[in-house]
Amino acid sequence: MKTDLLKGKTVVVTAGGTQEAIDPVRFIGNKSSGKMGYAIAEQAALAGARTILVSAPTHLEVPYGVEFVPVQSACDMQKQVEAVYEECDAVIMAAAVADFRVAEAAERKIKKMEHMSLELVKNPDILKGLGEKKTHQKLIGFAAETNDVIEYGRAKVRNKNLDMLVANDVSKENAGFNVDTNEVTFIYPGEQITNLPLMSKQDVAKRIIAAVAEL
Ligand code: PMT
How does the cofactor bind to this protein, according to its record (predicted)? Predict the structure, then answer.
């Protein structure tokens, strides 16, 4: 349903799991399908926002009315999000960003061998970088945790200078990666938290957009 909740605002949404190249045909990836981020982008557009979806590879259709920026790696994602940061009012980072990348991806396909090891180096923390140079933007992060969800979530709100964090316990059935439903908790700076029951990712996305409009 269309609303005017975010009319006149520009919202950047990230989605999917970044892919870190090993060679031209292989990568390190994760289980993110992009469903959560695409649902948020769809709801942001329906709420009247100019919506820019910066997405790692997925099998999903780009929602109607959304500007699409495809990326592959964490470094690509950082570059594209930073390019539009100044002009946006909110960034919602639902992407599962790889914390490490291969130090030097091979230019040619690596041939079979008995043993092989990869040297990994740390990727930039995109959200933390945005938090450090925040001016007028509202920053909404996600946290994928398997234990101590609220405690780790609160630490992320502080460390990344967030206005809101959407924490999901990805060890729960029907929540988190590659399912159509999610069960999340909104964590704000200070003590305030809001627990939501299990619901479709579209409904979670509607609640996130309503919360962002409040911010
Ligand atoms: O895509 P789906 O299959 O629908 O699954 C949805 C989801 C589980 C991927 C989503 O709900 C979710 O939890 N996304 C965040 C996953 C994650 O990377 O969590 P994190 O706790 O590792 O990272 C915390 C925050 O920092 C996230 O907003 C992340 O986008 C950001 N981050 C992380 C690492 C990094 N190098 N740069 C970042 O900006």
Answer: Binds 1 FMN per subunit.
Mean pLDDT to the nearest integer, 46-59:
98
Taking the C-alpha atoms of residue 75 and residue 32, their distance in angstroms, rounded to an integer, is 17
Place of tokens 């409009």: 213
- CA 39–ligand 1 middle distance (angstroms): 15
Q: What is the pLDDT of residue 9?
A: 97
Q: Which residue from 47, 45, 50 is spatially nearest to 63, judged by alpha carbons?
A: 45
**Which ipTM value was assigned to this complex?**
0.98
Give the whole-angstrom CA distance, residue 207 versus residue 40.
9
According to the model, what pLDDT value does residue 2 have? 83
Q: How far is CA 110 from each of CA 23, 105, 115, rounded to the nearest angstrom? A: 7, 10, 12
Ligand 1 centre to CA of 112 (Å) is: 33
Domain annotation for the chain: domains and CATH numbers: 10-106+117-214 (3.40.50.10300)
pTM (2 d.p.): 0.96
| 111 annotated as belonging to a binding site for a ligand | no
30 is catalytic: yes
Long-range own/partner contacts, residues 194-203 (CB < 8 A, 24 or more apart): 198/174, 201/35, 201/36, 201/39, 202/39, 202/42, 202/43
Q: What is the pLDDT of residues 160-208, one digit of tens each?
A: 999 999 999 888 989 999 999 999 999 999 878 999 999 999 999 999 9
